C-alpha cells in the first residue's frame, strides 16, 4: 500500500488537514501502518459510529478486527511516540469513543503491565491483553475525588495474610461495565501508600453500574464501581507500584494521548466543516465564497496545526527525555523559580500540551458547528457528535484549569494547588 493511500483528502481533492505534513516525519513503515489504520476506520468504524453513539452501544464485535491491526502500545513494538500519537489522532478523527476505548485499554492498562507488571503477571495477561482477548480498565477516579485523588483517595487496601481486602468506590471508569480486569488503585491505611491491583472484575464483591444519560462519548461504557470486601491475591498486586509518584509515568503518557485526541477532534472538525462550506449553497453560491466563513476555516486550520506541532514536540521529548534542571538556562535561572523547571519529569510539558490543545479544540469545534448552522446541532451531520465529544476531551486527564496550575507551578516555583 502506498504511504498516502487511505488519507482523507479534503473536498474536491483539496489539501489534507495535515497542512504542515507532520506525517512526513514518520518512517515509511509508520506511514504505511497509518494508511492501513485509515482504511480500517473508513470501512469498519465510520459508517456505524453515529448509530453506536446514538444507541450508547459498544461494538464488542469490532475488537478482533481492531486487534488484527497489531497497534497495542506502539512504542513497545518499536514505533515512535509521534506515530503512537497520530494513531490516537486518526482514531479520534473518525470516532472519539473508539479512540477512548483504545487509550484506556492499551495506553493505561496494557502499558501498566509493561511498565510495572511482574514476570508472572506479564506471562499470564500481557499477550491476551495486547490481542484484545481480554479487556482492561483503569480505576483511579472516585465519586468525590477527581483532580485531588492523589491526596484524597478513599478506596482502601488492607493486607490480610497472602491477600488484600479492597473496599471503596470508583467512578467514570471507561470500559468498566464489560472489562475482564481493572487496574485498580487503593490506599493502604497503615502506610498511606497507594497500591495498584490487577483486579479480576468477576470477583465477589465487585459491583458495576453503567453511567447513563451522557451527552458525550456515548459509545464508551463508563461505570460506577463499588468494592465490598473484595479479596485479591498478593500475586495480583503490581509490585512495581509503591506510591502515587509511580502512577505519574502512566498519567503523563495518557495526558499526552488525550492531547492527541484534541488534535484528532480538530482534524475531524476541519474535514466536516470545510466539505460543508464547499458544497453548501446559500444566496446562489458556496458558503466558502463568503469571507467570514473562509476566515473561520482558516482559524480552525491554524488551531489544528498549532496543536499538532505542540503534541509532535512533546512526543519527541517522550522519546528523547525531558530537559532536566541541569542544562536549562535563561533569564532568572539563578533566582530560584526557574530552577525547578522540568523537575516533575515532563508532567508540566504534558499538561501544557493537553490544556493548550484542548482549549484550541473547543474553539475549533465551536467554529465548525457554527459553519453548519442548524445542521450543526443534529446528529445526522457528524459535527454535532464531534462538538459533543470534544467536551469530554476538554475535561478528562486533568481539566484545563488543573493542567494550567501544574504548568504555573513549574514556571514560577510556587504552587497554587492546595
Q: Helicity, in percent?
A: 40-55%
Radius of gyration: 22 Å
Number of strand segments:
9
Strand order of the largest sheet: 2-3-7-6
- End-to-end Cα distance, whole Å, is 53 Å
Low-confidence stretches: 1-11, 325-343
The gross shape turns out to be globular
Please render the helix and strand layout as text.
Layout: H1 28-44, H2 49-55, H3 63-67, H4 81-94, H5 96-116, H6 119-130, E1 136-139, H7 149-152, E2 156-160, E3 163-174, E4 181-187, E5 194-200, E6 206-210, E7 222-233, H8 244-279, E8 281-282, E9 285-286, H9 291-320, H10 347-371, H11 382-395, H12 400-412
Parallel strand pairs: 1-4
Antiparallel strand pairs: 2-3, 3-7, 4-5, 6-7, 8-9
Describe, in short, the structure shown.
This protein is 47% helix and 13% strand. It has twelve helices and nine strands.
Key terms for this structure?
single chain, 418 residues, alpha+beta, globular, disordered N terminus
Describe it.
The chain has 418 residues and is α+β, with helices and mostly antiparallel strands. 47% of the residues lie in helices and 13% in strands. The chain has helices spanning 28-44, 49-55, 63-67, 81-94, 96-116, 119-130, 149-152, 244-279, 291-320, 347-371, 382-395, 400-412; strands spanning 136-139, 156-160, 163-174, 181-187, 194-200, 206-210, 222-233, 281-282, 285-286. The strands form 3 sheets. The protein has a 4-stranded antiparallel β-sheet with strand order 2-3-7-6, with helices on one face. A 3-stranded mixed β-sheet has the order 1-4-5, with helices on one face. The protein has a two-stranded antiparallel sheet with strand order 8-9. A hairpin with a 6-residue loop joins strand 4 (181-187) and strand 5 (194-200). The N and C termini lie far apart (53 Å). 46% of the residues are buried. Mean pLDDT is 90; it is low at 1-11 and 325-343.
Amino acid at each position: 500500500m502506498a504511504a498516502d493511500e487511505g488519507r482523507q483528502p479534503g473536498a474536491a481533492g483539496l489539501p489534507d488537514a495535515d497542512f504542515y505534513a507532520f506525517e512526513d516525519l514518520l518512517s515509511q513503515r509508520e506511514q504505511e501502518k497509518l494508511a492501513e489504520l485509515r482504511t480500517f476506520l473508513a470501512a469498519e468504524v465510520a459508517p456505524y459510529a453515529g448509530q453506536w453513539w446514538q444507541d450508547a452501544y459498544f461494538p464488542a464485535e469490532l475488537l478482533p478486527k481492531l486487534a488484527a491491526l497489531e497497534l497495542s502500545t506502539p512504542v513497545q513494538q518499536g514505533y515512535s511516540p509521534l506515530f503512537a500519537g497520530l494513531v490516537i489522532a486518526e482514531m479520534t478523527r473518525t470516532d472519539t469513543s473508539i479512540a477512548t476505548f483504545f487509550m484506556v485499554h492499551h495506553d493505561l492498562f496494557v502499558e501498566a503491565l509493561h511498565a510495572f507488571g511482574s514476570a508472572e503477571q506479564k506471562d499470564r495477561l500481557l499477550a491476551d491483553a495486547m490481542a484484545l482477548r481480554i479487556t482492561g480498565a483503569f480505576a483511579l477516579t472516585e465519586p468525590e475525588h477527581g483532580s485531588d485523588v492523589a491526596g484524597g483517595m478513599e478506596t482502601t487496601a488492607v493486607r490480610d495474610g497472602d491477600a488484600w481486602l479492597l473496599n471503596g468506590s470508583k467512578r467514570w471508569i471507561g470500559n468498566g461495565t464489560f472489562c475482564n480486569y481493572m487496574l485498580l488503585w487503593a490506599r493502604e491505611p497503615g502506610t498511606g501508600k497507594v497500591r495498584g491491583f490487577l483486579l479480576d472484575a468477576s470477583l465477589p464483591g465487585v459491583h458495576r453500574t453503567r453511567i447513563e444519560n451522557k451527552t458525550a462519548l456515548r459509545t464508551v461504557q463508563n461505570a460506577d464501581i463499588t468494592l465490598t470486601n473484595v479479596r485479591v491475591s498478593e500475586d495480583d498486586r503490581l509490585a512495581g507500584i509503591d506510591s502515587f509518584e509511580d502512577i505519574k509515568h502512566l498519567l503523563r503518557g495518557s495526558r499526552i494521548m488525550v492531547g492527541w485526541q484534541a488534535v484528532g477532534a480538530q482534524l475531524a472538525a476541519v474535514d466536516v466543516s470545510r466539505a460543508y462550506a464547499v458544497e453548501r449553497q446559500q444566496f446562489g453560491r458556496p458558503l466558502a465564497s463568503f469571507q467570514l466563513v473562509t476566515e473561520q476555516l482558516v482559524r480552525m486550520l491554524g488551531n489544528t496545526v498549532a496543536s499538532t506541532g505542540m503534541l509532535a514536540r512533546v512526543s519527541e521529548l517522550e522519546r528523547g527525555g525531558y530537559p532536566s534542571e541541569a542544562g536549562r538556562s535563561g533569564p532568572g535561572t539563578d533566582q530560584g523559580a526557574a530552577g525547578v523547571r522540568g523537575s516533575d519529569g515532563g508532567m508540566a510539558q504534558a499538561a501544557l500540551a493537553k490544556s493548550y490543545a484542548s482549549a484550541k479544540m473547543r474553539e475549533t469545534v465551536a467554529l465548525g458547528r457554527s459553519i453548519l448552522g442548524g445542521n450543526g446541532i443534529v446528529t445526522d451531520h457528524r459535527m454535532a457528535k464531534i462538538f459533543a465529544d470534544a467536551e469530554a476531551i476538554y475535561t478528562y486527564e486533568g481539566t484545563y484549569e488543573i493542567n494550567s496550575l501544574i504548568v504555573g507551578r513549574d514556571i514560577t516555583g510556587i504552587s497554587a494547588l492546595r
